[in-house]
Amino acid sequence: MSEINILSPHVADMIAAGEVVERPASVIKELMENAFDAGAHSVTVEIRDGGATFIRVQDDGKGMAPEDAGIAFLRHATSKLHDEAGLEAIGTMGFRGEALAAISAVSEVELLTRRPGDESGTRVTLSAGDIQDMGEAGCPAGTVMQVKSLFFNTPARLKFLKSDRAEASACVQTALRCALGRPEVSVRLIRDGKEEFFSPGDGKIESCVYALLGRDTAKDLLPISLEDGDMSVSGFVSSPAAGRGNRAMQFFYCNGRLIRSALLQSAVEQAYKNTLLTGRYPACVVYLKLSNAAVDVNVHPAKTEVKFSQEKRVFDLVYHAALAALTKEDRTGLDAAAKPAPAKLYAPSPAAAAPAARPAARPDFYRSMKAEDFRAHNYSVKSGPAPRREEAAPVLRSYEQPYQTRLDLSAVKMPDSTKNEALRPEQSVKTVENSVQSVENTALPDYKLLGEALKLYILVETRGELLLIDKHAAHERMIFDRLKRQERSVMAQTLLESVTLHLGEEERELLEENGELLSELGFEIEAYGEDDYILRAVPADMEPADARAAVEEILEKLKTGKAPDPKAARDEILHTVACKAAIKAGYNTDRQELERIVRAVLSGQVKYCPHGRPVSAVLSRRELDKLFKRIV
Ligand code: ADP
Ligand code: MG
Predict the structure, then answer these.
(1) pLDDT category, 81, cuts 50, 70, 90?
(2) Closest of 399, 427, 423, 428 to residue 594, by C-alpha
(3) Confidence of residue 488 (pLDDT cuts 50, 70, 90)
(4) Whose alpha carbon is nearest atom 23 of ligand 1?
(5) I need a labelling partner for 629 at 20 to 30 A (CA). Which of 135, 191, 215, 579 fits?
(6) In the CATH scheme, what is the homologous superfamily, with its name and number, of domain 387-632?
């Protein structure tokens, strides 16, 4: 007798169901995608307990004809794909015709559906994949799909479900991710009778993101938008200051489909190079649009992975979009008027907010926009050639300088450079000046340098707000940027007293391996005897007193793999040099130096230290008034 059996369609469905329907959240995903494919404008998802007892998805889409309502549950039943050629350019979420078959095979389903033009609708009930009842029924236009007792006939599956709470939260996450991909569809999620979220469906990505991710996340997002021929990307990336400990807040959509993509993830993260702390990840919502033929969605059963036909173009598009947004970011609170998109994000237009009409969630947008501030303020825009420093005064109208004497810049010393005898005289002359590139050419707002607090924070009054600047972090960034811009080798200074380094074997190897790079960056290190090395020169910017600490720090970074490739190593070394060269906390800094840092920050060139810490923060008049209970 033959040993080979052809499985019955029923058993085949049960096996296939295992792939498509892993847990209640998978049902939500499939049903929501069907609703989107049906052209719904509004979708309501309801779950009870963890979803296994009850899931209901209602849409106002195109519905199904009575004769289709029963067929829809057969395996490979789909209205979205007719032949092989169609597979080349799938524009719908579904196309495999598997979901309804799989879901109904392991649950009890009730379908109610009516096409908008039809008088009456159809009701179909199924249990374990078998139709129980089918007939005419009155129902609203669109489709309601109700799934009960999920996995009732597959106890093994049921056993693998987590607690109701965990399953419910997976359902919420999935529904949210689906909803976030469709700003043009209003999605409401109800969990155990309570509304969990609601997106307005006005087609605006800002109101969608605001409604679904909440104010706290939304306020740190910068808009991105870029086009390249038939490809375009829009969405948001987070400010480097809002880096997160994991990638849970990264959302990528390709033509409305939520996808996982190492390519897009790295395109976004590359844009944060040198602005995000190691081990921190940006948040992002990235909507990629490209022709259906330029992407293959049929490479993964759950269709969460895709293949792009032009990976490099896609990468570049996303990378440049993110980079442009980060470059434009304003950390001084001054430039918000020139940034319509983030203002929109904080403040969905009243029309957009209206359908969302949940008063508690309505944003306090006038505060964020500070619209009245923009109007009140007159920027001092300079014209003509950049004036010399002495002529810059008109820009600083409100700047009172009771203590300031006009110093010859070349005589300005760094605060802690004087304490160092090993320094050659000409190198003790180091100013913040040479770190700033053409700040003088940038129009700055009026400001008043109030002074320095705690030997670290520069206090500036500007535009009716208090701007606080971390002087070390800001200066570090200025130096880092300048060193990085320098194509050629970094200038070195010979140490008057060379430093002897006693190194272990691993460190010696690292030093040999990276010798060329180190010397390019201004470090001159020579072997001396068995395991000693002599440090003869360090980058000109650096304090010779920090020479030893700098080399030790660099070796440590190379050792712990913080610098996986030569480019990263170069950046890491420059981080160290910039940090050691920057003015330090705990020392008084000359007013003129502070001034230069302030101007660099106000010009918008300096926003994050090379590790991603913000260099400035704004305390608004309103925040101060609140602190003193002048307003509540
Ligand atoms: P697929 O989505 O891959 O086509 P499904 O099993 O999810 O397969 O759905 C089968 C068919 O049932 C769809 O092709 C569609 O014609 C119909 N259908 C399912 N859900 C809906 C819905 N919410 N509104 C209208 N038609 C639907
Ligand atoms: Mg489907």
Answers:
(1) confident
(2) 399
(3) confident
(4) 35
(5) 215
(6) MutL, C-terminal domain, regulatory subdomain (3.30.1370.100)
Ligand 1: nearest atom to the Cα of 81: 4
The per-residue pLDDT for 244 is: 84
Q: Residue 59: CB within 6 Å of ligand 1?
A: yes
Q: What is the CA radius of gyration of the chain?
A: 31
Contact 583, 305 (CB under 8 A): no
**Homologous superfamily of 9-198 in CATH?**
Histidine kinase-like ATPase, C-terminal domain (3.30.565.10)
Residue 78 alpha carbon to ligand 1 centre in Å: 6
What pLDDT is stored for residue 97 in this prediction? 82
Residues of the chain with CATH 3.30.1370.100: 387-632
Pinpoint the residues of the chain covered by CATH 3.30.230.10: 205-336
Ligand 1 and 396: CB distance under 6 A: no
Q: Ligand 1 pocket: which of 31, 36, 78 to mutate (most atoms <8 Å of CB)?
A: 78
Distance from Cα 57 to the centre of ligand 1, integer Å: 13
Could you tell me where in the chain the CATH 3.30.565.10 domains are found? 9-198
Is the Cβ atom of 614 under 6 angstroms away from ligand 1? no
Q: Is the confidence at residue 46, as pLDDT, over 70?
A: yes
Record the tokens describing residue 615, joined without a space.
């260099």
> Could you tell me if the CB of 148 is within 6 A of ligand 1?
no
* Whole-structure pTM value: 0.67
Number of the ligand 1 atom closest to the C-alpha atom of 98: 6
* Helices 505-513 and 547-559: angle between axes, nearest 10 degrees: 90
Contact 143, 38 (CB under 8 A): yes
Note the pLDDT tens digit of each residue in 533-563. 999 999 988 888 899 999 998 988 888 776 6
**Counting atoms of ligand 1 from 1, which one is nearest the CA of 95?**
3
Q: Indicate if ligand 1 lies below 6 Å from the C-beta of 79.
A: yes
Q: Is the pLDDT of residue 384 over 60?
A: no
| Helices and strands counted in the chain (H then E) | 21, 22
The per-residue pLDDT for 254 is: 93
CATH code linked to domain 205-336: 3.30.230.10
pLDDT tens for each residue of 275-313: 887 678 899 999 999 998 888 887 776 677 888 999 999
CB 27 within 8 A of CB 101: no
The residue whose CA has the least distance to atom 8 of ligand 1 is: 97
pLDDT digits (tens, 9 = 90+) for 338-377: 333 333 333 333 333 333 333 333 333 222 223 222 222 2
User: What is the pLDDT confidence band of residue 434, given thresholds at 50, 70 and 90?
Assistant: very low
Query: How remote is the CA of residue 188 from the centroid of ligand 2, in Å?
Result: 20
Phi, psi of 599, deg, nearest 5:
-65, -40
* Structure-derived torsion over alpha carbons of residues 197, 201, 207, 212, reported in degrees to the nearest 10: 20
Q: Whose CA is nearest to atom 7 of ligand 1?
A: 99
